[in-house]
Design goal:
The protein is 29% helix and 17% strand. With 686 residues, it is an alpha/beta fold. The chain starts with 11 loop residues before the first helix and ends in an 8-residue tail after the last strand. It comes from Urbifossiella limnaea.
Amino acid sequence: MTDPSLVPAVPADLLDAVAAEAPAPAAPPPPAGAPLVPPSSGGTTYTSRLLVDRWLAARGVGFRVKPEPDARGRTVYVLKECPFDPSHADPDACVMQAPDGRLSAHCFHNGCRGHGWQAFKAALGPPDPGHYDPPLAARKPGGKQRRRPAARPPAGGPAPPGAASPDATPPAGGAPPEGVPPAAEPPIEGPPTDRGTPDGRPPRRVVHIDPALPVALTMAEVTDTLVAARDCYRRAGQLVRIAGADIGPVLSAAELAGLLNHHAEVVVAAADGEEYRPLPAAYANTWLNHPGEAARLPPVTLFTLVPVYTPDWRLARPGYDPATGIYSAALPVEPRAGTAHLDRLLAEFCFRGPADRTNYVGVLVTALLGPHFVGSKPAVLFTGNQPGLGKTILAQVIAILRDGRPTETATYNPNDEEFEKRLGAIVRRGATTIVVDNAKGRGRAPRIDSACLERSITDEVLSFRLLGHSREIRAENSHQFCLTANTPDVSRDLVSRSVVVGLYHEGDPARRAFDLPDPEGYALAHRAELLGELAGLVERWRAAGSPRAEARSRFNKKGWGPVVGGILRHGGFPDFLGNAGAAAAELDDTRREFADLVAALADHPQGTWTAAELADLAARLRLFGADAGKESGRAVATRVGILAGRFVGESFPLDDGRRAEFQRVPDRKGNLYRVAVHDPEDGRGD
């Protein structure tokens, strides 16, 4: 038998703690309509719950949270050390919070007996108003205590105890109606009153705005709400909301206020109480321009409505991928063997040559490779020798496969500022395919020449000014730009940024009969099959070791030409970019005029020419006349000299079948120029 004198004394507090581990009897449910009040609270209704973790962290207290509540259902915050004796280390001291919000604290050492919650709170430092949910309203010296908006009773149900009847009208002087007790002062801590809506929906979040509290607290609450919503992201540094297949930027204070109210209520403190209001514009603009808050949102590096291959060549799954930042709103597809649906779709289009058809298929394949070529892929320039050949239909098929629906078209405007706003409006509405339909110059600006469009094709991040906004719309450049035009006059920079798909038909296109009268409808109906066939081309190329092709393109910085060319060549599509040289010659009006100048030099008895003499001959032939009358003779000579340097070594066809090569002849007095004419029969030059 154990000697009782050898048994150590056990503190009563420890016995209480052990007893707490025993299961507590379940409390009977409150009667219907009874107010929700904590036990032994004297009927006091709490309005705010202390966020213990936030309070301890703000006070610099080390702690851990037990993974499971204790037998009474309390959350246990184990302190790294006791606030009264640092030698009392984990797990001797703790703060506990019951499900109803009530707090208790304890240290199991005899030396700390008698120190309960109030003593712990005083030793650690009392919580601030912002450590509660909802935050407590600060009491101004000499002022009235602010109160939270009263909880509303269920429609048609009795008002909660102590609440005025909806029909009661306070008499003059602010006294409550007869039989209604005055509102009690809110307690310091306790359970929240927001326990859900009468129809059982979960409670709404509440964002609190109090001029007595730091603005940073409100900014953090706004961000916490947006992050918790799980539909708000950061795209190119801007807040966007994604809902299904729609993505929309939030650029203004009014838009942010509306989005926030979709997910939470905003309570604004005033001198005489608090009110539910939309997010004030000053706070909304502060958040929109805050350098740190938007950075807390998950980043979207690419938003896509078409299945895409990730940088490590996986087909991205639908939804958000935190590892890559890709948000795929696309339905999953299975790679398919063959190209039966693709061949059926393209069978009746009158492509000018095999290269034009292959280029078009290359653009479709590029849609699946978006993460690999952000800002590093060409536009598509559809050309035709006459209207009615299907250029716009081919552009809309691209939109259907990429976005799941036809896209609105834009009209080319030589006023770049207005054109930029139009492009920005389309990007803002979430389209990733932008079609500039029937592009043509006007009046004194006959050439299609847009600095805005040219930079938009190659920029990593699209950025457009918006009509009626001081902010810009930004997005990663995963977009596909398409231009349709008949015999266009296109700037050299735009030609070099485009892949050309030419259509050609002799005769009246209206008299053609089609077995597939609605290609766009076919693309919509068979979108999954078409995308599966394109994915099959990629998969077979990868299975073969991902062979690259020799494809000359200005977009080879990230390997667009060799990769897409390799996929097409392995899939049986020949002559990728094979029409690039001929298209550049046809579409570049400066090159066409220089060809006329070379033809004149070939038939002229003079052997060599200075830049000034070339300029004089060009003026007599009325070439390069876009700037005639605006430049001095010296300026014209300089400009022609620059053009001559550009075309040195190039060969131009002559009308009789010969070719003339433009050459530079070094001379001690400066550069001289000549042409060498080659006969196609004997290969000799004059």
